[in-house]
């Protein structure tokens, strides 16, 4: 059962170099390069609240609600491995990296606190 508890430790959702950083006005997340089919993992425990292509510009998109404050979003996936309503654990593979909705293979990753985007690199562990 999903409890909505505090995110105790964020995890990087995918290996790869950050090829585009966060900008509060222009780019509300980070882009992580990689190879088609690379694993995309949940950055924290939560419940999948969106899975699909209905939000323009993100291709195959997943949104995970971690608690009443935090959401994370994973865009440009090749394949989604979870569905709306699924409970996910930090580090669990939830998708494969792709280029849906963009011109190169990458993961677009966002974290939102109380509905507002924050720079994911401020809460992710150093690497």
Please state the CA-atom Rg, rounded to the nearest Å: 13 Å
Q: Into which percentage range does the β-strand content fall?
A: 35-45%
| Structural class estimated from helices and strands | mainly beta
The CATH architecture assignment turns out to be: Distorted Sandwich
Overall average residue pLDDT: 93
What is the CATH class? Mainly Beta
What would CATH call the homologous superfamily? Answer: Glucose Permease (Domain IIA)
Q: Whole-Å distance between the termini?
A: 31 Å
Which residues form runs of ≥5 with pLDDT under 50?
Answer: none
In total, the number of strands is 10
CATH topology: Glucose Permease (Domain IIA)
Tally of structural domains: 1
Structural shape: globular
* Biggest sheet layout: 10 strands, antiparallel
Put simply, the count of helices is 0
Helix content: under 10%
Topology as H/E string? EEEEEEEEEE
Helices, strands, pairings?
Blueprint (H helix, E strand, L loop, with lengths): L17 E3 L9 E4 L5 E3 L4 E7 L7 E6 L4 E11 L6 E2 L4 E5 L8 E8 L2 E3 L9
Antiparallel strand pairs: 1-2, 2-9, 3-8, 4-5, 4-7, 5-6, 6-8, 6-9, 9-10
């Amino acid at each position: 059962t999903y409890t909505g508890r505090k995110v105790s430790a964020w995890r990087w959702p995918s290996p790869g170099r950050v090829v585009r950083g966060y900008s509060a006005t222009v780019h509300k997340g980070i882009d992580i390069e990689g190879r088609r089919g690379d694993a995309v993992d949940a950055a924290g425990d939560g419940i999948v609240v969106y899975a699909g292509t209905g939000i323009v510009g993100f291709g195959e998109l997943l949104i995970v609600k971690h608690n009443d404050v935090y959401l994370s979003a994973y865009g440009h996936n090749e394949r989604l491995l979870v569905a709306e309503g699924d409970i996910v654990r930090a580090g669990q593979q939830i998708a494969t990296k792709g280029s849906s909705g963009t011109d190169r293979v990458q993961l677009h990753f966002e974290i939102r606190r109380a509905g507002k985007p924050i720079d994911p690199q401020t809460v992710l562990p150093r690497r």
